[in-house]
Amino acid sequence: MSEKKGSTADEMAAKQQNISVAEFFERNRHLLGFDNKKKALLTTIKEAVDNSLDACEEAAILPEISIEVIEMGNERFRVIVEDNGPGIVKQQIPNIFAKLLYGSKFHTMKQQRGQQGIGISAAVLYAQLTTGKPARITSKTDKDKPANYFELHIDTQTNKPEILVEKTIEWHREHGTKIEIDLEASYQKGDQSVDAYVKGTAIVNPHSTIIYVNPKAEQIIFARVTENLPKLAQEIKPHPYGVEIGTILKMLKSTETRTLQSFLTTEFSRVGPGTAKEICENSALLPNMKTDDINLVHVEQLVQGIKKTKIIAPPTDCIVPIGAELLEQGLRKEVTAEFYASNTRTPEVYRGIPFCVEVALAYGGSQPGDQPMSILRFANRVPLLYQQGACAVYKSLIQTNWRAYGLQQSQSSLPVGPLTVAVHLASVWPPFTSEAKEALAHYPEIIKEIKLALQECGRKLGMYVRKKMRVREQSERANIFERYIPEVADSIAKLSGEERETILAGLLKMVKKPEIQSEILSLPEEEEDHKKIKLKVSEDDETESEDNDEDEK
Amino acid sequence: MANKKVEQELTSLGKKLAKDIKDGKNPAIEFQVRGLSNVVFDQKTQKLALGERQATRSFFNVGHAKKFLQTLEVAKVSKELLEVEKHASLRDVFYMAKRTIPNSNINIVDEQKETDKAIEDLELITGFPREQLQVNANKMGSVAGKVIIEDKGDTIDWSKLGSGGWSIPSNVEEIEFKKVSAKYIIYMEKAAVWERLHEDKFWEKQNCIIMSSQGQTTRGIRRLLQRLSKEHNLPIYVLTDMDSYGWYIYSVIKYGSISLAHMADVLAIPNIKFLGITCDDIEKYKLQKHLIKNTDQDVARLKQISEYEWFKNNKDWQRQFKLMKQLGAKAEIQALSSRGISFISERYLPDKIKNEEFLE
Q1: Using the beta-carbon criterion (under 8 Å), do B62 and A525 form an inter-chain contact?
Q2: CATH number of B142-355
Q3: Is A484 within 8 Å of B15 when comparing Cβ atoms?
Q4: What HEC string does A315-371 produce?
Q5: Chain B contact for A470, CB < 8 A?
Q6: Which chain A residues are Cβ-neighbours of B248 within 8 angstroms?
Q7: Could you tell me which residues are beta bridge partners of residue A187?
Q8: Is A9 a domain residue?
Q9: Fewer Cβ close by (within 10 Å): the C or N end of chain A?
Q10: pLDDT (tens digit, 9 = 90+) per residue, B98-116?
């Protein structure tokens, strides 16, 4: 037994080094959105389009994006995404597309689509692993300069870009970027398809034009509905209430400040010297403590101290909602309905992180009335297509009483009716349940805001639905008289001994008269005097029925 | 024949509506408003009566149409019954009217309550009580005592009917009193108490009539009481539970009821007296341990009753209401059984009547 020794530290270290990015990817593909072939196609397109839209907005360019998916047989697809963005400088192209975890987005607290800097390079790696083909990038930053063309692989051992081809070429665009990737994938239509993603993207990016060619070679153009670019989101520092121990440790490593107090005032939002001192006091730490000396125990104390300290909420001007009107316009364009409503809430804060909820809904039209409603979920202008049931949006929808707005709904399920609801969450850090960014976590603050926004739209919907029901009732009522007339004619004939046909004809003639028609269409009114009685008697309803000295049965 | 008059009345209702239609007018029926808002208490007669207010029920009116249809349906049923000279029960009428209108999912009536109301409306429209419209309620309630009557050719002796007594029919108009030897009537809310008194031969010993129904007093019983009171001058004493509902039973027999205010003339008996249970009985007969706590509903009902016009200036009753409020409790007639099973027939009732301990 003693012969079988455990691994030495050196051996273990060697092994650890040997874990390649390829292995890392293999192990984490479900976290990155590449669990299956269908999803791989979607994720690849999504990462490319997210990058394009973010880049355009940052450069204040109205996005024009073309997406082309070509089926090459044998479960191979070619994805080409091209934008009119600012382009990428030559030196950065290899790193952005062929190095995992490269990117500027991870450490910033700013509302934007991508977050981790994993996205597009993961797609490149996936393509490389499944087809062996390099990613082909074309980018141009200025109309007077030529475009740079790269063919890239990722070195799966070192996580470094491997440049296969690098050259300058002529390109018809003034500026922009184009990526071409071949990957193993499968294409299907439906709620979680590329088609649904593109449609959703068009709804929440009404300032963009998207030209989409699907594998069936059908071209769909989503034209922009507004020429106004969204306001550029401001970067903010983290608010103390939102940070966890790990984040603080990371921040301590990278900070240039020397004392705890200056660390707090410099690296966090809403912390001035007074608040910083208070935090230190509540954490039983000295304000002039050296940042280098702070260890895990101190950080734990600090987190507790922060909880005890009153700190004003973070600024919310860093949030850029789409706007109720534009969101509604976006929905109008893609969902044919008869009634629309929308609502943007004022920004709120969860765990120190500002966020804002927007809702738009479309009712009626060609939507099926006997099915559960359709949900469109968005976070920072990106459609969320998977894990609907795990999302805070879903929870908020089933917790809302849709019956009050004239829809059918059974206990804790989605309402049934011809309804589509789009919910958008804008935040500097949307709380996803996983790295694949598919569902929003159930923070009570977020659920509360979503519900309030839904209720606001729901009230408008309720008014519309009720009005529609009234109109339908009116026509039913006219119908009712037609049913009653033969019965009444029977009774009157029997009582009076006169000809039934004469009475019937008289009533039928009368029902067509305009004054009778207007009476029929008026709102029902109780017999006036009886109505008043009802009100009075209702005080002692119970006793009135006892007073009714009838002996039933 | 009374029947002919009723038939004529129904025919003229039909003719009126047929004329409305011929003239191109919205066919409409007019009748007095029924309900608390149109009920007045006549100080002179000491009875409830219906006020003057009229309501119109027209066909081409979204709110009225269904009731209009139901009223006519019931009128038609009544006319058919008159033609074949048969009576139907309230339940029968409901089934005669209940059907689905062809090519629709609309029922003419869904619940018996609807036909019952329509019949009451028809009483107002025609001016005839429902018995004359050939509609009867079920018989309910028992009577025993030294009285001989004739009903549909049969002679019946109320003192010779075994343990069940005579069942009081819904329609007592045709009954003829042949011989009335009893000196007074005790009417009680509870059938169980009636059985107690019957077993104890109370009516024989006291030479009185005992009468009961279960709960609310039916029209037939009220009419029978009124006729005995009027035609034979018999005093009537009422025995109910000591609670707001029991006391209201007394109120209905004496003054009339709100929903049947239009018939108060033939039903109300202003000279009846209340025998018990009163709040004073609790102390006198040591029933304190047999009280039941008043519910919120009881308290609310008590307040309503105490504010009725006919009780408002009645000092004796106001005193009872106040006492009950203080007690915060009610008591059943059967609480007397705690003093012995026949305490009621041997002590309580004879004492009360002898000492004339009544409330008016």
Answers
A1: yes
A2: 3.40.1360.10
A3: no
A4: CCCCCCCCCHHHHHHHHHHHCCCCEEEEEECCCEEECCEEEEEEEEEEECCCCCCCC
A5: no
A6: 543, 546-547
A7: none
A8: no
A9: N
A10: 989 887 778 999 999 999 9
